[in-house]
Amino acid sequence: MVPVLPLPRLLFGAGALSGLAGELTLLGVRRPLLLSDRGLERAGAVAAALRALPQGVTAHLDTPENPTVAGADIAYADYRAGACDGVVALGGGSVIDTAKILAALAGTALQGSAELLGQPERIGRNTVPLVAIPTTVGTGSESSPVSALHTVPGGPAIGTRSPFLVPRVAICDPDLVRTLPRRLIAATGVDALSHCIEGFFAEPANPVIDALALDGIARVFADIRAALEPEGDAARASLMAAAFAGGAAIHKGLGPAHAIALVCGDQDLHHGTLIAAALPVTTELLARHVPGKAARVAAALGLATGEEIAPALRTLMRELGLPATYKAAGYVAGPLDTLIDGVVASHFNRTSAYVPTREEYGTALRALVA
Angle 271-289/358-369 helices, nearest 10 degrees? Predict the structure, then answer.
């Protein structure tokens, strides 16, 4: 069966943030909780959002960099204390993923966010309205149906997938990413690329999502280098479009790079860094076993054959200054068999066009962590 594609209403372009108040009016939200983080407060993005919101808005700015159950519960306490009726999430994937679970929790009689993790059957139409305003160029959480929270800081993340977690509105304003650090442009841009590539490879096919994914692939590969430069406003806007496309691609599913990255996400490494090292390795396997789809990905990258994808990705990661292995990034591996068990059991294998064998996953992990 071709998957359903619920996507948010999209406001896109420089200055799009000015439409926030009007979108809340359309949603019937009068007392939104503004969820963000201290880094964005220091960068001035929170002040910009508050200027676009009604007076007296409740703001919660203590979202942890790697989102946790405790962080969501503390934010939910502020939501209830402010008698809020909707959520505005200003930030990257950590903020938006936290906001998704918060919005879902607010529509239930449950006491804490842990009761929703991995249990999408508990998430329904009573989820309160959520407006997502991304401040990175890659997570795609503003258009995806997934939230991933850590049960404990530094522990593994648990993903929860539901069409009711898709934000009602996404406001993608390139002005908000103008001062994004180069390392975050690189890491989050590569994350968007991975969503588009693995989403395109995922089964079953969906012509609408596949078209978006191929466009996103072409955008990231063409524009990510220029997006690192101070004058790269147009390139950063292009990456924001690719990130939205990547979030749409997640509706189909992902694949082995995300299986590896999620299992190895138990340490203080950026998800984009983990993906950047794994993607060339796993895409090489996909290209070998699914040559028809690989040929279309290669064409989107401006390459002649699927065999050229992995070398091109390795070159890109090197040019972006991203580590080629987890060990080089500072990852300290535990027992290899435990990592392999986790990756083999990953739900991301369910939608992959090709599922690596245990031996193939073992080879990949040895190359990444040894």
Answer: 140
Sign of CA dihedral 296, 301, 302, 306: negative
Using alpha carbons, select from 192, 247, 199 the residue that is nearest to residue 220. 192
Question: Which token pair is 139?
Answer: 């997570």
pLDDT band at 3; cut points 50, 70, 90: low
Write down the pLDDT at residue 6: 82
The predicted-structure confidence for 46-100, as pLDDT tens digits, reads as follows 999 999 998 889 999 999 988 999 999 999 999 999 999 999 999 999 999 999 9
173-219: per-residue pLDDT in tens?
A: 999 999 899 999 999 999 999 999 999 999 999 999 999 999 999 99
Number of neighbouring beta carbons within 10 Å of residue 344: 16
User: Domains plus CATH for the chain?
Assistant: 9-177 (3.40.50.1970), 191-369 (1.20.1090.10)
Q: At what angle do helices 93-106 and 69-81 cross, to 10 degrees?
A: 60
d(CA 1, CA 351): 12
One DSSP character per residue, 321-361 reads T--SSHHHHT-----HHHHHHHHHT-GGGGT-SSPPPHHHH
Q: What is the pLDDT of residues 118-143, one digit of tens each?
A: 999 999 999 999 999 999 998 899 99
Task: Check residue 153 and give its pLDDT.
Answer: 81
Choose among 265, 192, 177, 267: nearest CA to 228: 177
- Maximal C-alpha separation, the chain: 58
Token pair listed for 167: 């934000």
Report the C-alpha gap between 14 and 173 in whole angstroms.
5
pLDDT of amino acid 195: 97
Are 141 and 96 contacting, i.e. CB atoms less than 8 angstroms apart?
yes
Enter the tokens of residue 242: 């690719």
Distance, CA of 324 to CA of 326 (rounded, Å): 7
Contact 254, 202 (CB under 8 A): yes
Burial grade of 298 (CB within 10 A; 0-12, 13-18, 19 or more) = buried
What is the distance of C-alpha 98 from the center of its chain? 12
